[in-house]
Structures are given as C-alpha cells and as structure tokens.
C-alpha cells in the first residue's frame, strides 16, 4: 500500500527583491510588501538572508519582516553567517528559525555548504544558544555524509541541503550523481532524527523533483521566484510553485 508523504512547506526567500531595490537606493520595491504578497499567495514561511555586507536585505528589513511575520502568524527563517554580529541580531529578534550559512564577501551567491566538521565546537555553542532563545536552528550544508553526521552530533534540529550544484548540473543536462547524493543525505539526516529542508537555485522542475523525496519537509526558494515574478507577477509565481510542489508530493 502506498503511504502518503507528509506535506511539504514552501519558504519564500525575498532577498532579491532587495537586490533590485538596492540597485537604485530608496525604498522600492519593498521586500516586506513582497513577503506579504507571498504569504497571500500561499507561502508557508518567509526566508531572508542578512549578509555581512548587506548587499540585499538590511537590518531595517529584518525589523519589518519580523513584524509582518509575527502579525500574520507566518514563520520567519533568518539566514545568517556564524559571526558575533549576526548572533547578536538573532538573539535580539528571536526569529522562528535561524539557518546558519557559510559566507564569503567575494562570492556572488552562497556557493557551498557550511563546514560543520571543522567548525564543530564553535557551531555547537551557537546552535545551543540560538535554540535556547527559542529559534529552530538549521545548518545549510552540502549533501555530504560527514557534514550530516556532524550536524546531528552538535545538536542541530534541522539541516537544509544545498541544492545549487545539482540545479546547475541539471541546467547542463546532467545531475544524476548530485541528485543521488541529495537523496542519500536526506535519508541519512532523517534517520539521525534531523528535519530535512532543501534549497538554492530551485525552479519549477527541480523543485517538483526534490519535493518527491520523502524526508524533505521544506523548500526555500527565492531567486527563481523573484525572476519569474517579472513575467507573471509574484503571487502567480508563488501560487504556481505551491501547486507544483504539492502535486509532486501527492503523486510521489
Ligand atoms: C543561503 C542561500 O541559500 C542563499 O540562496 C540566500 O538565501 C540567497 O542569498 P545569496 O544569493 O546572497 O546567497
Ligand atoms: N536557502 C536557500 C534559499 O533561501 C533560496 O535560494 P535561491 O532560491 O534564492 O537560490
């Protein structure tokens, strides 16, 4: 008998609304307004990455997004590097979720996963502190068995698997090996008691494919949706993504 998969959540990342705003300065387009529209269109959560260089989301955006998410009862997932500055900000705002990500100033986007194996001691302290403040703590990692094991060892509640390398390979007509690694990492993390999320570079097709993996409970998607919004509008893009991943899950 086929056992139905548990539902999958869609977290909409609104960073790149801020990228467009910041290209000219000023206040338009407003990522908080985009978050409100995403919620109206069916987003289960809002994700925002406050980078050290503030290249997209700013501290003021985090205040606005925190207020919006609190008043609309939608979880805010704050992505941040494991620095003292970001630790202070997370402890001040106490978002529903914090996702610790690797960050390099010179990178164009988040290129790899967090090295939990090497940073084990420092990260363990940060994970405990953020969890103690009430945030659900997630580690953004590559689909690597050592990183999955280390994430469980240091007490993370969630891992988010970096799907960027797979999505790039798919665009080049390949991706089987990367997808197999993601599926294996998702199973391993689930067996270790971690909640499993995935994200980075997903579009309608790759999101549908990864949504079929049983252990995956949340997808965080941004850049593609904001790009698609230029053509069909943000509510339509989010609504279609919600439908695509829901149908993929139901048919798996
Ligand atoms: C952490 C991550 O996956 C990124 O996609 C982020 O959310 C978007 O921001 P950047 O493109 O600046 O990395
Ligand atoms: N953590 C991944 C995320 O939030 C969105 O990534 P992208 O879809 O903007 O590449």
TrEMBL record:
One of its GO terms (molecular function) is pyridoxine 5'-phosphate synthase activity. The lineage of its organism: Bacteria, Pseudomonadati, Pseudomonadota, Alphaproteobacteria, Caulobacterales. Its EC number is 2.6.99.2. Catalyzes the complicated ring closure reaction between the two acyclic compounds 1-deoxy-D-xylulose-5-phosphate (DXP) and 3-amino-2-oxopropyl phosphate (1-amino-acetone-3-phosphate or AAP) to form pyridoxine 5'-phosphate (PNP) and inorganic phosphate. The keyword S-adenosyl-L-methionine does not apply. This is Pyridoxine 5'-phosphate synthase. 3-amino-2-oxopropyl phosphate binds at residues 13, 24, 201, 222-223. Its main location: cytoplasm. The record marks 160 as: Transition state stabilizer. It comes from the Bacteria. The gene is pdxJ. It catalyses: 3-amino-2-oxopropyl phosphate + 1-deoxy-D-xylulose 5-phosphate = pyridoxine 5'-phosphate + phosphate + 2 H2O + H(+). It is found in: Cytoplasm. Keywords: Cytoplasm, Pyridoxine biosynthesis, Transferase. CDD domains: PNPsynthase. It comes from Peiella sedimenti. Coiled coil: none annotated. Belongs to the PNP synthase family. Pfam families: PdxJ (PF03740). The active site is at residues 49, 79, 200. InterPro entries: Aldolase_TIM (IPR013785), PyrdxlP_synth_PdxJ (IPR004569), Pyridoxine-5'_phos_synth (IPR036130). Pathway: Cofactor biosynthesis; pyridoxine 5'-phosphate biosynthesis; pyridoxine 5'-phosphate from D-erythrose 4-phosphate: step 5/5. 1-deoxy-D-xylulose 5-phosphate binds at residues 15-16, 51, 56, 109. Homooctamer; tetramer of dimers.
């Amino acid at each position: 008998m086929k056992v139905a998969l548990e539902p999958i959540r869609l977290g909409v990342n609104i960073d790149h609304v801020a990228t467009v705003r910041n290209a000219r300065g000023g206040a338009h387009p407003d990522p908080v307004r985009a978050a409100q529209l995403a919620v109206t269109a069916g987003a289960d959560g809002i994700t925002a990455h406050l980078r050290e260089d503030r290249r997209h989301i700013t501290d003021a955006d985090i205040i606005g997004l925190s207020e919006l998410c609190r008043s609309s009862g939608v979880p805010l997932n704050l992505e941040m590097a494991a620095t003292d500055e970001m630790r202070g900000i997370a402890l001040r705002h106490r978002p529903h979720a914090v996702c610790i990500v690797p960050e390099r100033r010179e990178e164009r986007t988040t290129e790899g996963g967090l090295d939990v194996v090497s940073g084990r001691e420092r990260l363990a302290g940060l994970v405990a502190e953020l969890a103690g403040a009430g945030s659900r703590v997630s580690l953004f990692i590559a689909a690597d068995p050592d990183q999955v094991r280390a994430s469980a060892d240091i007490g993370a509640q969630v891992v988010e698997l970096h799907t960027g390398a797979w999505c790039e390979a798919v665009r080049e007509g390949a991706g089987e090996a990367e997808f197999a690694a993601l599926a294996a990492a998702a199973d391993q993390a689930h067996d270790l008691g971690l909640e499993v999320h995935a994200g980075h570079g997903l579009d309608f097709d790759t999101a549908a494919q990864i949504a079929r993996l049983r252990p995956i409970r949340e997808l965080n998607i941004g850049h593609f949706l904001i790009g698609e919004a230029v053509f069909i509008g943000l509510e339509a893009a989010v609504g279609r993504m919600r439908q695509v991943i829901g149908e993929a899950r139901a048919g798996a």
